[in-house]
Specification:
alpha+beta; 3 helices
Length: about 210
């Protein structure tokens, strides 16, 4: 009795089909995995953006005490108070939220920092003009980083309303990405970054 075996051609065809199934399965798994990673990266970056947006918006709206708001200019290793000037960008904000104290929000490198209830005197603001930013708390988590190309990210405008009241308009535009898993360029290419877009107006009417 003869035992019928497989021809070489049959073995090759079967192997080809088997390998095709394996390749399709692996490719599908990789696509699902990449999709999950993409969603996770965007979610973490978005969380950092929302947290920064919430704190900045709340602090700006609470700055009801004179001089209310000043820009922070970085130079010689210090942050200097600056009166609001048209078409000038700032590295940070000084916000006067309670009598005799102020808060600072500023960007340094690829991180944002916040420090609140800093005591001050009139001489400090008018003459020394140096803001106290030591031991400020980092606002974004260690997983996130902001854009490396933007240092002065705050736009502050002072306008007069039709009734003559002063209105401060504060804009912030930046991005966060998940630095623990990718570079800034990679995040821009994969579109896994999250935009920070703050637009807050405060009027003397709230004082």
């Amino acid at each position: 009795m003869k035992l019928k075996g497989y021809s070489l051609m049959e073995v090759l065809v079967a192997s080809l089909i088997f390998m095709s199934v394996i390749i399709v399965s692996v490719s599908s798994f990789a696509m699902v995995k990449n999709s999950d990673n993409h969603i996770e990266d965007v979610s973490i970056a978005s969380g950092c953006s929302r947290q920064l947006d919430d704190v900045i918006t709340a602090q700006i709206r609470s700055s009801n005490f004179s001089p209310r708001i000043k820009g922070l200019v970085y130079g010689d290793g210090k942050y200097i108070f600056d009166d609001i000037q048209i078409e000038k960008k700032y590295a940070g904000l000084a916000l006067f939220t309670v009598p005799g104290k102020y808060s600072v929000i500023f960007k340094e490198g690829q991180d944002y920092f916040f420090k609140d209830e800093i005591p001050y005197t009139a001489d400090q603001i008018i003459n020394a003009k140096i803001a106290n930013t030591s031991n400020a708390n980092k606002m974004n988590s260690v997983e996130c980083a902001a854009s490396s190309t933007s240092a002065n990210v705050f736009d502050i405008y002072l306008v007069l309303s039709s009734s003559g009241r002063k209105i401060y308009q504060v804009f912030l535009s930046d991005i966060f990405y998940r630095q623990s898993v990718e570079s800034e360029n990679s995040a821009l290419e994969r579109k896994t970054f999250s935009k920070i877009s703050v637009d807050v107006a405060i009027s003397e009417r709230s004082i």
